[in-house]
Amino acid sequence: MMNILPDFKIVPKEKIADNFLKRRITTFRQAIDYIQNLEYGRNSNKDDLNTVFTDNKGTCSTKHAVLKQLCIEHEMDEVKLFVGIFKMTAVNTPMVGERLMNNKLSHIPEAHTYLKYKGHYYDFTTKTSSPNDFVKDLLFEVEIQPTEINRNKIQLHQDYLREWLDENTEIGLSFDEIWSIREQCIMDLSK
């Protein structure tokens, strides 16, 4: 599936391209390889994509936003950045299974950021990530820009969770409780 994505030579443009070039990464495919092999973890400043390089790690949001920004810098507009809400379960995300079970939840709606190109999904969060991990459980998706991965994505996710709780009162949890469980799940993924 990777071969469907366009490849291009990285040329000095702006900070993201320059950060790759400093590391002797000269093509988009090499950039993808670099990004997906970085450690998974939250960045010190999600509003500054350069922290992916200084922190040597990233989340689905920051890693894919860096790749999208690189595409923007090289006028590769057909590569799109998306945020989707999917049912995070013990099956598609085994590292959160115990946390969900302990809270009597079969799933929790989770936001995930990824790339799309000509209708194909791409997930470079880790070297083992695959769109198959979430696509079949996708509830909602919307195209975003790299500048929207912080506050906008969080607001979209929180709004979705509030609506989900309103429609599923049998869950019996407040928004603050479900957000706390979700945060604990993200910490479980970082281990």
User: How many domain modules?
Assistant: 2
Rg on CA atoms, Å: 17 Å
Number of strands: 6
List SSEs in N-to-C order: HHEHEHEHEEEHH
Instruction: Name the shape in a single word.
Output: elongated
Strands of the widest sheet, in order across it, are 5-4-3-6
Structural descriptors:
191 residues; alpha+beta; 4-stranded antiparallel sheet; 7 helices
Describe this structure in words.
It contains seven helices and six strands. It has helices at residues 15-22, 28-37, 51-55, 60-73, 97-102, 151-167, 175-190, and strands at residues 39-40, 57-58, 79-88, 108-117, 120-122, 138-144. A four-stranded antiparallel beta sheet has the order 5-4-3-6. The protein has a two-stranded parallel ribbon with strand order 1-2. α3 links the parallel β1 (39-40) and β2 (57-58). α2 (28-37) packs antiparallel against α4 (60-73). The longest helix has 17 residues, at 151-167. It is elongated. The protein starts with 14 loop residues before the first helix and ends with a helix. The relative contact order is 0.15. The mean pLDDT is 94.
